[in-house]
Amino acid sequence: MQCIYPGSFDPITLGHLDIIQRASQAFDCVYVTILLNHKKTYLFSVEERLAMIKKACAHIPNVQACYYDGLLTHFARSKKAQTILRGLRSASDFEFELQMANLNKQLAPEIETYFMATSPDLSYISSTAVRELAMFHADISKYVPISIVEDIQRKF
Ligand code: PNS
């Protein structure tokens, strides 16, 4: 079974990587996919974000980094994936996630959204916090994969 793990990944964090690693044990293939969230503006280009995902996941053979400019359900169908996976860090994440899962279910009833709880020791990490820390030249090495620390720092 294959799953799509969609998100902005601006940039990928250790919280994302935790979900990807655990999903890679449960699914034959995990498509880590950058899609557009029209509520957000991005710091890193799609190419930069893809390169960081590829570096961070290089050690996991059944993970593929992708980008799709369109609806998540269209991409999932094009990959014949029956599952969308989203990580939950806190109860406050849930309202938006439930709305998105219900909308996607309406658009593609054959595709299920699965939620995975982020490991508690990583649940406070967000891409937003990483960008803010990096902007002020703070140490980000506890929050993102070590292989991409310099890529992020270079941006500032
Ligand atoms: O990391 P994010 O920003 O919370 O990810 C949200 C994302 C990109 C997965 C979501 O905005 C998305 O699926 N965008 C693609 C367009 C789409 O399918 N919209 C309908 C479902 S909200």
Structural write-up:
- This protein has 156 residues and is of the alpha/beta class.
- It is 40% helix and 19% strand.
- It contains six helices and five strands.
- The protein has helices at 14-26, 46-56, 72-78, 91-107, 127-135, 149-154, and strands at residues 2-7, 29-34, 63-67, 83-88, 112-117.
- It has a five-stranded parallel beta sheet with strand order 3-2-1-4-5, with helices on both faces.
- Strand 1, helix 1 (14-26) and strand 2 form a beta-alpha-beta unit.
- The radius of gyration is 15 Å and the shape is globular.
- It binds 4'-phosphopantetheine.
- 4'-phosphopantetheine binds at residues 6-8, 35-37, 40, 71-72, 100, 103-104.
Order of strands across the main sheet: 3-2-1-4-5
Task: Give the overall form.
Answer: globular
Low-confidence stretches: none
What percent strand?
Answer: 15-25%
- Biggest β-sheet strands, sense, barrel: 5 strands, parallel
Order of helices and strands: EHEHEHEHEHH
- Bound small-molecule species: 4'-phosphopantetheine
Structural class: alpha/beta
Number of strands: 5
Compute the CA-based radius of gyration.
15 Å
The number of helical segments is: 6
What gap, in angstroms, lies between the N and C termini? 40 Å
Q: Strands, helices and their partners?
A:
Blueprint lengths: L1 E6 L6 H13 L2 E6 L11 H11 L6 E5 L4 H7 L4 E6 L2 H17 L4 E6 L9 H9 L13 H6 L2
Parallel strand pairs: 1-2, 1-4, 2-3, 4-5
Bound molecules: 4'-phosphopantetheine (PNS).
Summary keywords:
alpha/beta; single chain; 40% helix; 5-stranded parallel β-sheet
